[in-house]
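Project standup — Tuesday

K.O.: blocked on the structure for the chain from last sprint. Re-posting the sequence here as requested.
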Amino acid sequence: MRRLPNLRPWGSTMRIALVAAVNPQIPSASGVQSYVSMLGTRLASMGQEVELLGLGLKRSLVGGVEVVPIAREVRNAFEFVVALSRHLKRWGDSASIIHAQRPDDLIPFHLMKPATKKVITLHGDHGIHVRSRRGRAQEAFYRVGERYSLMRTHSILCVSKSTKIGFGSRYPLLAAHLRVIPAGIDLDMFHPRDRGPARTELGIPEGDKLVIYVGRFEPEKNPISIVEQFSGLRERHRDARLLLIGDGQLSSDLRRRAGSSGGSIRVEGPVGQDRLAILMAASDLLVLASKHEGLPTVALEALATGIPVVGPGVGILPEVVIPGVNGFLASTSLDLESLMEKALYDSSWDPSTCRSSVRVHGWDKVAPAILEVYRDIAS
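H.V.: unblocked you, prediction finished:
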């Protein structure tokens, strides 16, 4: 990952509106929720006025960020865009910057607040996700809105080089507006620590091997494959255990499989960042199996904790996972069993090496770089 630029002093206060269909008061397996919550907190600590247009029951202050619910909950992206449109009709505050996490979330601002400066973070190519879940016709419809929005956005942040290359190829006219600023992680929270207390709580002997998965329990994340591949590993290594953390439409299936695993597989719902940091430190390996991916923040958090990562060669993973140094990359989900075994039983890992590979992702570097973008487009 390239070095971030030298930054100017923080300067005068700006009013920043972050936009995302998340509720920061409820633990979630969403990497976007972690990104938005931590970015807002860091910006507020740097003297900026920050609000989050998101979900919830009532206004609240979380980490110095004013959370402004525009809806209690939404079932899909379209409902969130409609809720944004209704909110903007009575939105009296004049933000200096609007910062969204999806192109379609900016459409109401383009129509109703055309003069306000707008920024988007692309966490990957969401159109691929739309195609995999709803088909090519829905993807084509989504791409129309994506193009409309991106062409009217002042600065487009890409969490990885591959994301920038992909969108630069799709929209050549946007090349000058694309820049890579990696997603941030809290290096103070995620760090190597004593894993004894968490292991005792989980009932896992010190000598056993613990594999952890954190993410949404959805088909595109492929957690079923992780369970199937782990089961093969478990047949040869009775000390191997798997902990799945998250929720989604596959929750019932995963819990059923865990129930018949003889205690070797455990499923937990989403947890807060404090709890996740402890569970990470209690683990020996993070495993992912996404069919497509942008930036799995959880992989960066695992490496910051000092544990290796096994996952597919998609999204940013090939940029951060160095085979044999801080993990392994799988060509297909069928490779997971052998790579988990290799990582757990045939390799030695240096926690400090794993951690050093993601230092550029610390929020102490990422948040000032994003604030610099705000100042550039606002000046």
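K.O.: great, moving the ticket to review. The domain at 196-359 is CATH 3.40.50.2000 (Rossmann fold). The chain has a mean pLDDT of 91.
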